[in-house]
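Handout, section 4.2: multi-component inputs.
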Amino acid sequence: MQSCRHRPYHPLVQIQLSHPARTVEVKGPKKVKELLRELNLPVEAHLVIKGDDLVTEDEMLYDGDHIEIRPVISGGSPHFPFHLSRFTS
Amino acid sequence: MNCTKCKTKAVIGLPRHNAAFCKGCFNVFVHDQVVRAIKSEKMFGKEERILVAVSGGKDSLALWDILLKLGYRADALYVDLGIGGYSEQSHAKVTKFAEAAAASHGATLHLHTLEQEAGAGIKELAQLIHRPTCSTCGTIKRYQFNRVAVEQDYDVMATGHNLDDEAARLLGNVLHWQEEYLDKQGPSLPASVEGFAKKVKPLFRLSERELAAYAVLNRIDYIVEECPMAKGAKMLQYKDVLNRLETESPGTKQTFYWGFLEKQSKKQPTATTMTEKDRAVLHPCSSCSQPTTAEVCSYCKMMARAKTHATS
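Output:
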C-alpha cells in the first residue's frame, strides 16, 4: 500500500517566462488563449513555443507540457501581474 | 487552426490579415511583405549594395536573412557599444549568424567598437558628457552606420524597424505634437545631401510578433533580452498600449501607421521637400565632413568632450 508521502507525481503545465526569467505552473488542460488571458499577456505581444515549434492560440496544453511564453517586445511586459508569479488554477 | 493557404496545421495565426499559416506559407508571406515594401517605396534594386544595421536582435538579423534569401547584395555593420555582458552576448549572436548563414551568401560583417574609439563604453561615455544613454547611443549608431555606408560606397543603409516601432514612434510624436518629426517617419529617406546615405526600413509592413515568429521558425538565434539601458523607456510603454489595442481590434497598428503614410503621400511630394529642406540647412562638419547643421557635428563634439574628460 502506497503512503500519502509517496503518491504518484502529477506534473502540471510548466511555463517558462522572461523579463524576469522564471517558471510558473498551471493545471491543464488549458487553451493557450485562455492561459495568456489569465496571465494578462496580450496575444499580440507574445509567442508560445513548445520544443522548436510555435503553438497557436487555439491549441490545448496538457499536464506535463513544457512551454515558453516569449515576449516579442524585447525589454519586458510592464503589466505582467507579478502577484501571479506562481499559480495553479 | 489550419493554414489559410495549404490547409495543413498552422503554426501562427495573424488576426490582422484574418489568416493563419504553416511554416512554409508563413515564410512566403514574410518575404512577400518585404518585397512589397522594397518595391512600393523604391528602396533598392538587385544590383545595389545594401548595408544592414545589425544589433543581434530578431529584427535586424531577420532582415539580413530575408534580404540574402531574396538575392539582394546585403552586408552588415555591428556597433559594439561596450555594455558588458549584453554587448558580448549580442556580438556573439551576430558573429554566429554571419559565420553560419551570411558567409554562404558571400556577405560581409563589419564591426565598429566604441571602446576602441572613445576609450569607454556607452554608459561611461554618456555619464562623462552628461547626456542620456539612449540619445548618446542613437547619435553614435546613426553616425557610424552613415560613415561606413558612405566610406564603403554602399548605395543604401537598411534598418530593422518594424510596424510596431514605427507605430509607437508615430504615437509618441502625435501625443507630443512633434509635427516637425513627422516628415522623417517614412520608410525611405533619400540621400538628400552629399555625405548622407539613403536610409530604408524594409520591415515596416511586418509586426514585431511576425518577425519574432520568423526568427524562431527559421532558427535564427537572436538576443531575447533587450538592452538593459532601455528599461522603462517610453517607447516600450507605447508599444504595450498599441499591442493591447491590437489584441482587441486586429489591424489597429497598420491602420494607424499605413494610414499616416497614405495621408503623407497625398499631402506633398515628401522626398523633394525633405531634400530641399536638408540642403538648406546642412553642410559638412569642419572636423569629419559628415553633414550637420552646426559648425562641428554632435558626434565630433561628443568625442571631443569625452577625450577632454578622459585626460583631465
